[in-house]
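Researcher: We plan to redesign the surface later, but first we want a full-length starting point. Tokens attached.
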């Protein structure tokens, strides 16, 4: 058995949590502390660091810790500031413990070494420390939630990024109107009162060049959230929510709601907001027949109009069963060049939706990594080159300005004849115009650089995915259509499975395949 002093190579894991008010300075302090600790003991290491809550339930929510555990066979130890930095969730703590025991990996902090493979005392101490870390996390959560409730009742904004049209005052913690965006909000309500729907309003906003935060274009779902948000009439709504798992998916259950009227200045007068809200209710009542007719067959689902047969390419139908569940119907299309029907079998829609959600999480992480890589690597040299060109042009413009000033002095003193001064002045003016054109060209290249590299599109998709879990099925469907063209679904059953009853579990759970076609 190797003791701590014989360890040569390990993984340093650093984590801070915004929930506790920690920032980059805290992360830097931990980084320096662990660097000094490892240097003092002769340890070499790879470093993994992230800003995320230690109470996350899924390792997928903590990509750096997940990557460390995937590479754990490379290391002899894990170095961290304290055990609670690894996890404040009991399940994740036990996963880490088991991996360390399986691979004989020690966990080393500046004050303690945990040899989980060989010491029962260390295992007990690790378990006790993990329990206290979990309890502390839950206690902090309850205390923070209580503080938020109290502040919300005082009219303070405590719910993350303020609504479009508002900014949060850092001193009073209350919302204040941001007039450039507030004008657009008033325009949206005006159009809705005139009878326009959310899609038409979004089209008009985009045609005028208006842009929402964190995205290039207004979506109907964005307009709907603005119209239905009571924040614009001066009311503050705070929801106490709990993350729970239902039908294999995580969702947020609202425990209670606190509404504070007149909490901040209203962009829309309360009576006008109530009028718009009433009109939306009446419009919904008039359209209920049409919506119910659609629901009998397909309803509003996350994947509506996106599923296509992976065999024949035809659009697939989603059917609502009598028990309320949704099913992807079998593709029975008969092509002109053959007599038999397509053999692509259907399945319960929820199985496909769950797989798509997992795919979207992976796609989101991939986009984040690609965007970070592009920002740090791909455009670094090009941007630096353009920056140097811009500095050079500005220096030449300053030099031209000095020459023109000197020329004016020469004219006043009569040192040079007028005709020579006129020629020099004309040359300097021409040079100034040329330099101004060069400056504008460089600035245009710099503005186009980010868009041409695909960063804006990535940022837009990431902004959509950040809000995805909080959206309704209809909003999720509209979001997916912003960057997914088709989802090609395939489920071909072998003959020995076909003969089984449709109630057979083996048949029901027979796997399917799919590919996503992005825009």
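Model: Full-length starting sequence:
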């Amino acid at each position: 058995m190797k003791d701590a002093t014989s360890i040569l190579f390990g993984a340093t894991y650093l984590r801070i949590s915004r929930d506790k008010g920690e920032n980059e300075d805290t992360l830097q302090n931990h980084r320096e502390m662990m660097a000094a600790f490892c240097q003092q003991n002769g340890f070499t290491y790879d470093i993994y660091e992230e800003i995320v809550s230690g109470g996350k339930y899924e390792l997928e929510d903590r990509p750096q810790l997940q990557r460390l555990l995937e590479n754990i066979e490379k290391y002899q130890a894990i170095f961290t500031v304290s055990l609670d930095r690894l996890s404040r969730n009991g399940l994740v703590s036990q996963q880490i413990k088991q991996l360390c025991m399986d691979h004989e990996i020690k966990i080393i902090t500046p004050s303690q070494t945990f040899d989980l493979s060989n010491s029962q005392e260390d295992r007990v101490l690790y378990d006790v420390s993990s329990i206290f870390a979990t309890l502390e996390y839950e206690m902090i959560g309850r205390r923070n939630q209580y503080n938020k409730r109290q502040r919300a009742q005082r009219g303070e904004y405590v719910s993350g990024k303020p609504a479009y049209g508002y900014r949060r005052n850092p001193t009073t913690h209350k919302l204040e109107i941001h007039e450039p965006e507030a004008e657009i909000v008033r325009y949206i309500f005006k159009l809705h009162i005139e009878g326009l729907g959310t899609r038409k309003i979004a089209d008009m906003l985009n045609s005028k060049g208006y842009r929402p935060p964190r995205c290039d274009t207004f979506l109907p779902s964005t307009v709907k959230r603005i119209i239905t948000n009571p924040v614009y009439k001066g009311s503050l709504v705070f929801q106490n929510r709990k993350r729970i798992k239902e039908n294999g998916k995580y969702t947020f259950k609202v425990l209670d709601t606190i509404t504070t009227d007149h909490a901040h200045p209203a962009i829309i007068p309360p009576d006008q907001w109530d009028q718009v809200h009433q009109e939306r209710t009446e419009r919904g009542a008039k359209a209920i027949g049409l919506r119910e007719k659609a629901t009998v067959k397909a309803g509003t689902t996350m994947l509506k109009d996106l599923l296509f047969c992976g065999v024949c390419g035809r659009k697939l139908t989603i059917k609502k069963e009598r028990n309320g569940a949704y099913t992807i119907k079998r593709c029975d299309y008969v092509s002109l060049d053959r007599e038999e029907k397509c053999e692509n079998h259907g399945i319960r829609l929820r199985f496909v939706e769950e797989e798509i959600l997992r795919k979207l999480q992976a796609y989101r992480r991939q986009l984040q990594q690609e965007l970070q890589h592009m920002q740090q690597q791909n455009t670094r040299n090009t941007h630096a080159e353009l920056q140097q060109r811009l500095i050079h042009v500005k220096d030449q413009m300053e030099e031209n300005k000095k020459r023109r000033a000197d020329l004016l002095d020469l004219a006043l003193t009569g040192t040079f004849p007028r005709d020579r001064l006129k020629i020099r002045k004309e040359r300097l003016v021409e040079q100034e115009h040329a330099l101004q054109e060069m400056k504008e060209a460089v600035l245009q290249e710099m503005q186009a650089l980010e868009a041409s590299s695909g960063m804006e599109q990535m940022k837009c998709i990431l902004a959509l995915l950040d809000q995805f879990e909080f959206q309704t099925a209809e909003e999720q469907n509209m979001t997916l259509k912003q960057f997914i063209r088709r989802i090609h679904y395939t489920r071909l059953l072998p003959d020995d499975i076909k003969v089984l009853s449709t109630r057979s579990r083996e048949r029901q759970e027979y796997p399917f395949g799919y590919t996503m076609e992005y825009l």
